[in-house]
From TrEMBL:
Entry protein name: NAD dependent epimerase/dehydratase protein
Occurrences of domain NAD(P)-binding (ranges): 9-122
Lineage: Bacteria, Pseudomonadati, Bacteroidota, Flavobacteriia, Flavobacteriales
Pfam families named in the record: NAD_binding_10 (PF13460)
Species of the source: Zunongwangia profunda (strain DSM 18752 / CCTCC AB 206139 / SM-A87) (Wangia profunda)
Gene3D superfamilies in the cross-refs: NAD(P)-binding Rossmann-like Domain (3.40.50.720)
InterPro entries: NAD(P)-bd_dom, NAD(P)-bd_dom_sf
């Protein structure tokens, strides 16, 4: 089956790996990116839309694909203003899901975070939880929400806390067994592979945590 895909957040840590997987996969004939800046890659399948992603609705006619992947996300350090933070982490994914539904998308995959809870007193967890709730009600046949714990990978910007935490999780991952597996760190390339797997093969759960992300990534062979 020939398919098309849309990626939001293609210039980010996980988004870059996801684009690479999409371009390699023979199921996809076109990969459309919606972002503020160019990815810096040339490929016959690649189509880039340089836009203000906070105004995604203005580009609803072009926002059409079988599968939509949302890797958008910011941090408290990068976006201390809570109103702007919500526009990014809540507003963009929810708008994307609504547009995807209107334009007949078959699958929507979004990265959330461990701890997401619409009833949380913690602002950042609450925003993620509210985003999940409103994405899940979109009229799309297949919706998957990824809740990774710490995401491991080589970032362009250096986050001191994450660097320290990454080394700590490498030591303690093997100790996290049973119900604690959901707290294991997960590599960005594994998130990308797992996203590809659920978009191309039926999966029973809508909420996918770190341990399942790693399991699904191991099943994905990159060819179909």
């Amino acid at each position: 089956m020939e398919k098309t895909a849309i990626v939001l957040g293609a210039t980010g840590l996980t988004g870059r790996h996801l684009v690479e997987e999409l371009l390699k996969n023979e199921n996809y004939t076109k990969v459309s990116l919606f972002s503020r800046s160019k990815l810096g890659k040339v490929h016959a399948k690649l189509e880039e839309h340089l836009i203000d992603v906070l105004k995604l609705e203005s580009h609803k006619e072009a926002f059409k694909a079988h599968d939509v992947f949302c890797c958008i996300g910011t941090t408290k350090a990068k976006t201390p203003d809570k109103e702007k933070y919500k526009k990014i982490d809540y507003g963009i994914p929810v708008t994307a899901a609504k547009l995807a539904a209107k334009n007949g998308a078959e699958c929507f995959v979004v990265i959330s975070a461990m701890g997401a809870d619409a009833n949380s007193r913690i602002f950042y967890n609450r925003i993620k939880g509210e985003m999940e709730q409103d994405v899940m009600v979109a009229n799309i046949p297949n919706i998957y929400i990824f809740r990774p714990a710490l995401i491991v990978g080589d970032r362009e910007e250096k986050r001191i806390f994450e660097k320290v935490a990454t080394h700590a999780f490498k030591l303690f991952n093997f100790m996290l067994v049973g119900n604690l597996k959901k707290y294991r760190s997960v590599r960005c390339e594994n998130i990308a592979k797992a996203m590809m797997h659920v978009a191309n093969f039926w999966y029973s759960d809508s909420i996918i945590k770190s341990n399942k992300i790693n399991e699904l990534a191991a099943k994905y062979d990159g060819r179909n």
